[in-house]
Amino acid sequence: MNFYYSGWNKLQIDSTKNYDDYSIQELCTLQDSSFNLILFEEYEGIMPILEDFRSLFGKHDNDFVRYFLYSILRDTVKKQNITYANFVPLIWDPFFMKCCELLTDIKDRSIKLREIHRIENDCTKSDLLESQLLLLCCGLEGCKKYESSGNSHHWISVSVKQIKTYLSMCDQAKAADIVLQLRKKLKLSGNFDIVEYVAHKVSETMEDQALSSIDVSIDALASFLQDMASDGEKRYCIEMFSNCLDIVDWIKNGNTTVIIKNN
Q1: Which of 45, 111, 160, 168 could bridge across to 130 with cysteines, CB 3.0–4.6 Å?
Q2: Closest CA to 177 of 249, 236, 247
Q3: Cα-flanking dihedrals φ and ψ of residue 23, to 5°?
Q4: How confident is the model at residue 130 (pLDDT cuts 50, 70, 90)?
Q5: Mean pLDDT estimate for the chain
């Protein structure tokens, strides 16, 4: 029996077993948030995508293809039985479209800021983003139906730089919020205009905007916040200090009577 196998866990194959009656669900087994997949070369419905599958899941395997294929498999098998006959239209075509749309949206920077956070939280970290996008791009360029706009991948580094700038601005906004909390609780004086600007300019209301809409000058304005913004532990400590000021005020106001009851 001829078959093509790709998986993130080793799957034992019984060469004497007839797999023709198995459903896709039975051939795709979820193990440790990954899956095993067997595709049979003699089945003509799968044949057209085999080379594309090899291109994306071979040497160009990356976080995006695994995330998209797993999420589509997970969501689709809940609704209906997946067979050889409908694997391509129900699984492969939506998966391939998601991969292409991601590259297009990042290339022209029309990707929503909400999607950038989803990628950062669920798919791949920002420090790996450029290498993972390059793998995805090269993998898609090896697919027959992918319409490449050229061999240059310079746009990846340009777009990733802007994505990292936006994520840095988000961290600076969190740091700005903490500084403003301290100003209020400690009754600090001085010019906090830039801090207020950063805190209010970068907010959740921006998440439906496109990456291209970001004003990168904010990042330069708030460079003095970078030390706190880039150090999560330092930001957490200062935030905890700010929160503890309420307890200090409580003690200063004479609310120190504690009743201890002996059992």
Answers
A1: 160
A2: 236
A3: -85, 165
A4: very high
A5: 76
Q: From CA 73, how far away is CA 28, in angstroms rounded?
A: 9
Calculate mean pLDDT across residues 51-77. 87
159 in a domain, yes or no?
no
The tokens for 16 are 């004497």
Same domain, 110 and 189: no
- Asked if 176 and 206 sit in the same domain, the reply is yes
SS3 at position 214:
coil
Whether residue 161 is contained in a domain is answered as: no
Q: Averaged over 133-140, what is the pLDDT? A: 94
pLDDT-derived band at 4 (thresholds 50, 70, 90) equals very low
Please say which residue of 95, 125, 151 terminates a domain: 151
DSSP for 99-111, please give it.
Answer: HHHHHHHHHTT--
Residue 219 to residue 13: CA distance in whole angstroms: 54
Is 228 inside a domain boundary?
Answer: yes
- Are 129 and 229 members of one domain? no
Beta bridge partner(s), residue 34: 31
**CA 238 to the chain's CA centroid:** 28
Residue 22 has pLDDT above 50, yes or no: yes
